[in-house]
What we know:
This protein is of the alpha/beta class. It has two domains: 5-216, Rossmann fold; 226-308, Helicase, Ruva Protein, domain 3 (Orthogonal Bundle). The protein is 37% helix and 15% strand. The chain contains 13 helices and nine strands. The strands form two sheets. A seven-stranded mixed β-sheet has the order 4-3-2-5-6-9-7, sandwiched between helices. Strands 1-8 form a two-stranded antiparallel sheet. Helix 10 crosses helix 13 (277-289). It is elongated and about 65 Å long. The two termini are 25 Å apart. The structure holds S-adenosyl-L-homocysteine. S-adenosyl-L-homocysteine binds at residues 25-30, 54-58, 60-61, 75-78, 81, 104-106, 128, 130, 133. InterPro entries: KsgA/Erm, rRNA_Ade_diMease-like_C, rRNA_Ade_Mease_Trfase_CS, rRNA_Ade_methylase_Trfase_N, rRNA_adenine_dimethylase, SAM-dependent_MTases_sf. Belongs to the class I-like SAM-binding methyltransferase superfamily. rRNA adenine N(6)-methyltransferase family. RsmA subfamily. S-adenosyl-L-methionine binds at residues 28, 30, 55, 76, 104, 128. This is Ribosomal RNA small subunit methyltransferase A.
Amino acid sequence: MAPSGKQKDAQKASKKGNHRARKRFGQHWLRDDHILNQIVLAGELSPADHVLEIGPGQGILTQRLLNTQAQVLAIEIDRDLCLQLSEQFIAFMASGQFRLIESDFLKLDFNQALIDFDLARPNKVVANIPYYITAPILEKLLGTIRSPNPQPFDNIVLLVQKEISDRLCASPGTRANGALTIRAQYLAECEEICPVPPSAFKPPPKVESAVIRLRPRPFPTPAKNPIQLAQLVSVGFSQKRKMLRNNLQSIIDRDVLSAVLDRLSLNPQIRAEGLGVADWVALSDALDEIDEKPPIHQLPDSLNPLDLDLDLDPPEQA
Ligand code: SAH
């Protein structure tokens, strides 16, 4: 079938490297040298590293990743961009330093792809990701409290919305400390590297951004019962303004809960945002030790995805 006018335009545009940004794929090209350097530095890359880049776009970050001599595996959903990238990085592909998979990262069976394409498992992630799928990307990279990624990355450097960075890196007792904070910090050290203004992108996004670095690790005091911990966090944060004990009374006997809060020297009037990850683990473990019937009523699995409290804008229509 002959290419349609639209396809021809896309081919022409992609040859010239002036692909028009597609809003439905969350395309915002990073244009700021300083920020690009910060991102690459945060990855702490060496030639021995294998880096996964989600959404290479027009390859501006990809080029800098390749300059470190690390191996780069990129996953891009947009066919026109894949054509463009294959031309642009033809020499790196020939040498094997750069590999590109055209796929929706969320739908890709990553382990299977590594086998099918005979690829080494990447040990790091460095990416300017599409914001509208931040939560599922985080979950795919980190896993969940119940089932952490069994093959964790050494580090994960991402550009995300500033609001998400604030939540991932929040301290106990601050408003940003939510279920996402606890889930992410249970699975990884989270730090903000630098804020990024909209003007660093073309076209500029509507929101402020930030570079973050996550270092996955087993939590130093792992919960004895991670399923219970996941449930406590979901239910504990179900109504942020309420006291923790009022949220949890739907699944835990009031007296049991009072006794446990007392034993942990936690204020009975505390709200969920007042607790840090270690407090949640201590709460879960203390409930586990109670020598009665299980104090927690079972809840359905679906209450526990990492993105439960995320409320990001849906993708805009192109
Ligand atoms: N890294 C580039 C582009 C960032 S924009 C830069 O910094 O300039 C986000 C990129 O993710 C776009 O290239 C977009 O096409 C791609 N993308 C969007 N959804 C995706 C998905 N589900 N899987 C893989 N890539 C995706």
